[in-house]
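FAQ

Q: What does a record look like?
A: Structure on top, sequence underneath. For example:
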């Protein structure tokens, strides 16, 4: 069974893809890691750096949320109609 998730793109991710949002089809048992790997294969560049290879978690250099909740665990299961947001944290100074 297939599911669809909306991916909202901010900062350089928007520039890489050339759109503010995309819709991705996934398997109904897909995790956040599966989707991020799919995006990295499709778009390369910064998408490849979102998941830390050593830990498998979301890198602190990036901000990923699902339905408004920030996540670091890439083993989170995605559901149909989830809204994923990918950006870079705003810095202060």
């Amino acid at each position: 069974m297939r599911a669809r998730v909306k991916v909202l793109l901010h900062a350089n991710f928007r520039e890489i893809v050339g759109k503010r949002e995309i819709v991705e089809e996934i398997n109904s048992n897909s995790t956040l890691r599966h989707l991020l790997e799919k995006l990295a294969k499709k778009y390369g560049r910064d998408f490849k750096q979102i998941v830390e290879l050593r830990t498998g978690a979301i890198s602190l250099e990036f901000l990923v949320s699902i339905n408004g909740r920030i996540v670091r665990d890439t083993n989170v299961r995605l559901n149909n109609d989830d809204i994923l947001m990918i950006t870079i944290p705003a810095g202060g100074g």
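Q: Is there anything notable about this one?
A: Helices lie at 12-17, 32-43.
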